[in-house]
Amino acid sequence: MKFLLKMLILAVLVLPFSGLDSKAQSTKQQIEELKQQIEAIQRQNQQQIQQLQQQIELMENQRAADSEKMAEVVEKDNDAWYNKFKAGYNKGLTFSTTDGNFKMRFRIRGQFQVSVDDTDGENTATNFSVARLRMKWDGHAFRPWFLYTLQLGARDSVTLRDLYFTIAYNKNIMPRVGQFKVPFSRETLNSSSALQLVTRSIADAEFTYARDRGVTLNGGLGKNYNFSYAAGVFNGDGRNGKSTDSNLLYAGRIQLGLGGEESKFSPNSAFPTAKAYKIVPNFAKKPTFVVGLAAAGIPGLNIDRKSPNSLLTDRFEELGITQANLTSITGDVNFKMPVFNVQGSYYSRWIDPEEGGGSTAYDQGFNAQAGVFALPKTLEFVGRFTYVDFDTGSGVVPANTSVQNTAWAVTPGINYYISKDHRWKVQLQYSFLRQEFTQGEPDIDSNVIRAQLQAYF
């Protein structure tokens, strides 16, 4: 009995500890299992990290390769021919090289005109016409100071109007060669795109030397290039003509400008000068005064061999001569303000025959023109009076020969400048022209209305 009691007490004391030991063994096993899971997760994560690192390395290598290829492409693209040119628009389409040695501007000008001409003794004529169609290229080549201008006329057929080169390395002394306007008449030197009226005056048509082929020396002097000059020698046979003798045309012009602004020199224009003193008669930002003087002549001019313009040929025929010494001078003034402008020109010409013993013919003419803006840079009213006096003395004109004695014209007009300058405009003018003759021949009166649209771009 005592033995059983002892065994029972021992069992009671031992059983709890036996459960603890079993529980301890189970916890240890769980810990081991968790550690194994951690190790498995770590191995799995390490593999994923290695895979990600490999992907990153591959991507970085690919990016480096792509960057290298892109750099090669960019380098090749920078060397491509099309990256060496720039294009834009500056009163014409412009193309230039990045090194600054080549530049070209291309412009087109069209003038569409309708006119009604009522002249004594002729049918009244209503006519639609393309008065002018011009294509012009200008700029520089090889160096910024080697300038060029090319202009073609394409109204009825393609003809060369201008082709000249100007060496503007030193703007005080600039040689020019080619075909261009003779530095004489202010009206002629003013581009037909910038005329204040639809047509030039009858005085300019009579006394101008227009275009010719030759060489001149041009330049601008003074702090603001106030003083400009041009002097040269030409064939004397007009546009696209040639010289068949050595009786050449000599011409020179000087010009002084005061006031104004924009002293930047314009060496490639028809008459190189500061921009403020350009030949354009209107559009001034500040009061500007310009005065010019020019002379020209052809010793021993023979109209059977050459003629600087057709009207001069007509005058020789009226005088009954073929060869003579020709001398001309002209003077002009222009004053312009933002709202008002006025200009005047005087012409004189001596024709001294070399045969027949005739007297020297002295012809002269003048032109006065003014304009006022009713709307600044937009709407302008213009008026012009022109007078030409031909020498008809008894020792000059053959006996019993009727010739033109005088011609005069009154021309009012109105301009609407769409682009607020001469590039895009509409013009309307009326002209009354009277031609008077000797020997009792009746006068001829003309009434002409002209309207014109110009686009210059």
Describe the structure in your own words.
With 457 residues, the chain is an alpha+beta fold. It is built from four helices and 20 strands. The protein folds into two domains: 33 residues; 361 residues, Porin (Beta Barrel). 21% of the residues lie in helices and 46% in strands. The strands form two sheets. It has a 16-stranded antiparallel beta barrel. The longest helix is centred in the first third of the chain and has 77 residues. The N and C termini lie far apart (136 Å). The model has no long low-confidence stretch (mean pLDDT 92).
Concise structural overview:
With 457 residues, the protein is of the alpha+beta class.
> What is the number of strand segments?
20
* CATH architectural arrangement of the largest domain: Beta Barrel
Query: How large a portion of the residues is in β-strands, by DSSP E?
Result: over 45%
Largest sheet: 16 strands, antiparallel, barrel
Question: What is the secondary structure topology, with strand pairs?
Answer:
Elements: H1 2-78, E1 85-89, E2 93-97, E3 103-119, E4 125-140, E5 146-153, E6 159-167, E7 174-181, H2 186-189, H3 202-207, E8 211-221, E9 227-234, E10 249-259, E11 265-266, E12 273-274, E13 288-302, H4 310-319, E14 323-336, E15 340-353, E16 361-375, E17 379-389, E18 404-417, E19 424-437, E20 444-456
Antiparallel strand pairs: 1-2, 2-3, 3-4, 3-20, 4-5, 5-6, 6-7, 7-8, 8-9, 9-10, 10-13, 11-12, 13-14, 14-15, 15-16, 16-17, 17-18, 18-19, 19-20
